[in-house]
Amino acid sequence: MRLIAKIITAAITVVLLGHSSGFAQQNLFNVPIPETAKRHEIFLQQQVNILLSGTLGTSNTTIDYGLAPDFELGMNLFNFQLYPSETPPELGNADQAGLLVNGQKTFSLSDIFTVGLGAQAGVSTTNATDFLSFNWLVGMYEPESRAYGRYLAGAYAGNQNYLGDGNRIGYMLGAEIPLIQNRLNFVADYLSGTNNSSVSAIGIVANVWRDWQLSLGAQLPSPGSPNGYGLVFELTRIPGLVASPIFGPSNSKSPGF
């Protein structure tokens, strides 16, 4: 009953928030972080991308459940349009919306280095379905003193239905650096290549209320990619993570970041 109640609560939250476009699991903006939902806890992330050209706004909603220590499974509503684009998406086009299943397993190699292996796959929600897939391997270096931030590097691979035209394999980089300890961080990440997911994002993430974080950033296209400039918004629930929210009482269970 406890699990059912948590799933219902998360589902209601998703309905209230709407849908979004990005990657599954906890991430900086687009680069997955090798962290998983705590056992028997639900992780929720809502991302909204708005292109400055005004032709397309998309959203991605992710829900994950901690099945075991360092392992989670979930689903996400991928690439749902907030308002119609000028050209309707077609089969084989990375602009398709999709219903995906995702999972990630992390490995702590030391106190300061963690590796995550993850994947998401599913089908498009068009009349005739296409298969979409995206996979990653990412490492995170986090010094013992959290004042120095954390840094990520890894590789990704996906099919054309997910990434669009361009490269199918690439690398990822990311960093999160505290500006106000346990309250406000600078965040930047980058996905290499010339496909529809090849962008960089720069912004901030704030601990706004207990387990909730709000991220705001600017999207910059990777050279040679078809992407445009835009804005990225994320609302994330990570149970037990936030120690010193900007609003509301502190969560004493967690050391925060």
* DSSP, total strands: 12
Give the % helix: under 10%
The span between the termini is 32 Å
Uncertain segments: 1-25, 252-257
Signal peptide: 1-24
Keywords: Signal
Structure description:
By secondary structure, the chain is mainly beta. The chain has one domain (2-237): monomeric porin ompg (Porin, Beta Barrel), CATH 2.40.160. The chain contains 2 helices and 12 strands. It has helices at 2-17, 160-163, and strands at 42-51, 57-68, 71-83, 98-108, 113-124, 131-141, 150-158, 169-180, 184-191, 199-209, 212-221, 230-237. A 12-stranded antiparallel barrel has the order 1-2-3-4-5-6-7-8-9-10-11-12. The protein starts with a helix and ends in a 20-residue tail after the last strand.
In short:
Helices cover 8% and strands 49% of the residues. The chain is mostly beta strands and 257 residues long.
